[in-house]
Every structure is written in structure tokens, then in C-alpha cells.
Write a structure and sequence with these properties.
The chain is mostly helical. It has 16 helices and no strands. It has one domain.
């Protein structure tokens, strides 16, 4: 097998097994405890932090319910956007994945993402597992998953660059220091440029050397990672070239989720300028890379800190982010858990159909095959995963 194909196997073929094998609830509990201690220390030590948190929590009982209802609807539209983009990348006319299955895969994956944190690793594992069980080859799943991630996070990077430069230059109202505007914008553009460079050079240079077995150690890992990034960019470009209108789903995912944060502010008063909300939102989401349960403390703290640094009222920022995270992080886990249960039944039905079409004919062999496949299904159990 070539190194190019091995890259996909390493990243996706054993993803679900790797997650299950690395479960360690003691480490997860330790990480959560450390996060709680750090947050408590910061709230106690930072000037005015305790008062802002106390005042913010005290506002929870005084929300305008109309804005909360709007926030719930906006979050539903955000998830609809994710489902639309998912279908644009993964589903073709011959696929057995209908709208119901697309909903189940999306919601189950997000439940895993909320529980695991770690930049969405849990959600990726659930999505890859379900797509492969639907009959899509592992190589195709890997390539399309990389393309999906490139498409989804290209909106992220381009928004950070555009809003960061706009705030820094004064084109967009709101202001902000160079560290909060220009530097994130430059980093975002560097990431986009790096991905495009990988797409251009990986197969021609690093990929060719890796296939020839000329590299090992960190050079070989760099080569295979570059090839994977390049494949994701090429797949994303292929989707764009099709001019599929479902690409708008990526914009919906981010825009409506940011609108939930805006509605959460409005439920308790005025909201900061839209550009400030967008920049603080994206800066806070960097905390998703932390291996905390639901990234608690990482996203919340980062988003509140960014808002305050931009000049937003501390108490209003605390209560708005708490409500936003309730809608965006925790509320989806309930339908997500139900979707995961349905997804397991769908997968069993797909496998039964496949088995009836040409697999073991004897009942005992068929039962044994189904048992082995069910044993491979991922279990949503909290675990620390390195970013």
C-alpha cells in the first residue's frame, strides 16, 4: 500500500477503535477537576472578576423570553446548515443516506463533539463510522471528510481574516487592539495559505517521496500529513467547482450560531457591535481544542475574555455566553443522544440488507457477523483526547 493511501488509513480507518481503546475516565475526571480549579483561581484573583460573574449569574432570572425563543430557532437553523453542507459533500444520488439519516449522523456527531471536546475528534469518529457502515469505501470517506473539514473551516479562517483586518483598519466599527484584530487575521491567512501550499506541493514532492519510501520519522509524518491536507483542499475545490448550492450550509452553520450569541445578549439588554461579536466568537472557539468535557472553561472563558477585552460589559458578557453555550453546546446533546440510538439501528438495518444481498447465508454465520459489527460501534463515553 502506498504512503498516500496509508495516510487515510491512519487518520480514519481505525478512528473509532482508537477512541474506544483510549478511554480513561480517571484522566477525564482529573482534567475536569484541574479546569475547575483554574477557573475558580482566575475568578478569585482577577480584579472585578468575581463581581462580574456574580452579577452575570444574577441576571439569569431576568431574561426576555422572546429573545431566548429566537435563540433556540437560530440554533436549529445553524444545525440545518450543517446538515445541508453534509449532504452536499457526502451524499450523491446513489447513496442510501436520506435526510433522516443525515440528521441522525449530524446530531450524533455533534453530541460526541460536545462530550469529547478536542476539536471535534469524537464527532469525526462517529461520522466516519456511520458513513463506512452505509457502504461508502474507507478511502472515499476519508477524502470527503477532509474536504468537508476544509470547507467548513475555510469560512472560519476567512471570517477571522476579514473581520480582524476590518476592525484593525477601522473599516468595521468596534475597535480592538492589534493582538485581538490584526494578529488573528494574519494567522488565519497564514493557515489558508499553508493549506493551499499543501494542496499544490504535497503530491508532487512530499507525497512522491513518501510513496517511494524515502522518508521516515518526522519527515515521513510531515509528508503524510501534507498529503492529507492537500487531498482535503482538492476535494473541497471539487465541491466548489460543482457549484452546489448546498455550500451555503457552511455559511449558515457559522452565521446562525453567532446570531445565537447576539440573541443571548439581547435577552438581557444591548449587544456589542456585530463585528466584535464575530471576532470574540471565533477567538473563543479556539478553546474547543482543549480536552475538557464539552470544552467547558475553554470556549466559555475564551469568549468572555475576548468580549471584555473588546470593551463589552463583563457581567453582560458572562450571562450572554452562559446562555449561548446552553443553546449551542448542551441543548443539542439531548436530541444528539436520541439520534445516536437511531443511527445504531439504521446501521444494523444497512448491514442486514448487505448481508442478505450476498453475505453469509447460514443463520448462525449471519448472527455472528452482525455481532462482530455491532461490537465495532463507538460508544459515547467522555475521554480526554489530545488536540
Amino acid at each position: 500500500m502506498s504512503a498516500h493511501a496509508a495516510t487515510h488509513d491512519e487518520l480514519f480507518e481505525g478512528g473509532g477503535r482508537a477512541l474506544r481503546d483510549s478511554i480513561d475516565l480517571r484522566k477525564a475526571g482529573l482534567v475536569a477537576a484541574v479546569a475547575a480549579v483554574v477557573v475558580a483561581a482566575l475568578v478569585t484573583a482577577l480584579p472585578g472578576a468575581y463581581g462580574a460573574v456574580s452579577e452575570g449569574i444574577g441576571k439569569l432570572g431576568h431574561a426576555d423570553v422572546r429573545w431566548l425563543v429566537l435563540a433556540l430557532g437560530l440554533e436549529a437553523l445553524s444545525f440545518l446548515g450543517h446538515i445541508v453542507l453534509f449532504r452536499g459533500v457526502f451524499v450523491d444520488r446513489s447513496s442510501r443516506i436520506g435526510y433522516g439519516a443525515s440528521y441522525d449522523i449530524t446530531m450524533a456527531g455533534h453530541a460526541a463533539t460536545r462530550i469529547f471536546g478536542a476539536a471535534g475528534a469524537g464527532g469525526i469518529a462517529v461520522t466516519v463510522w456511520s458513513l463506512k457502515r452505509s457502504g461508502i469505501s474507507g478511502r472515499t470517506v476519508a477524502t470527503r471528510m477532509l474536504g468537508f473539514m476544509v470547507l467548513l473551516y475555510s469560512f472560519y479562517a476567512l471570517a477571522v481574516a476579514a473581520v480582524g483586518f476590518g476592525l484593525w483598519s477601522g473599516v468595521l466599527p468596534g475597535g480592538g487592539s492589534t493582538a485581538l484584530t490584526l494578529i488573528p487575521g494574519v494567522v488565519a491567512l497564514a493557515l489558508v495559505g499553508g493549506a493551499l501550499a499543501a494542496a499544490t506541493l504535497a503530491r508532487r514532492k512530499l507525497g512522491a517521496r513518501a510513496d517511494a519510501g524515502e522518508q521516515s520519522g518526522w519527515r515521513g509524518r510531515l509528508a503524510t500529513a501534507s498529503v492529507a491536507v492537500g487531498d482535503g483542499v482538492h476535494e473541497a475545490f471539487a465541491v466548489v467547482r460543482r457549484r452546489d448550492p448546498r455550500l451555503v450550509g457552511g455559511l449558515m452553520w457559522w452565521a446562525f450560531d453567532i446570531a445565537v450569541l447576539w440573541a443571548s445578549f439581547r435577552a438581557f439588554g444591548e449587544a456589542p457591535p456585530v463585528a466584535i461579536l464575530v471576532m470574540a466568537y471565533f477567538l473563543g472557539l479556539v478553546g474547543n481544542a482543549l480536552p475538557f468535557l464539552g470544552s467547558v472553561g475553554g470556549v466559555d472563558g475564551g469568549m468572555i475574555a475576548a468580549l471584555v477585552a473588546f470593551g463589552a460589559n463583563p457581567a453582560a458578557s458572562v450571562v450572554a455566553v452562559i446562555v449561548y453555550r446552553l443553546f449551542s453546546c448542551w441543548a443539542p446533546t439531548i436530541p444528539g443522544a436520541l439520534a445516536f440510538a437511531r443511527l445504531r439501528r439504521r446501521v444494523s438495518a444497512w448491514q442486514a440488507d448487505d448481508a442478505g444481498a450476498g453475505a453469509p447465508e447460514r443463520p448462525d454465520e449471519l448472527a455472528a457477523a452482525r455481532s462482530r459489527r455491532r461490537a465495532q460501534a463507538p460508544t459515547l463515553v467522555p475521554e480526554p483526547i489530545a488536540a
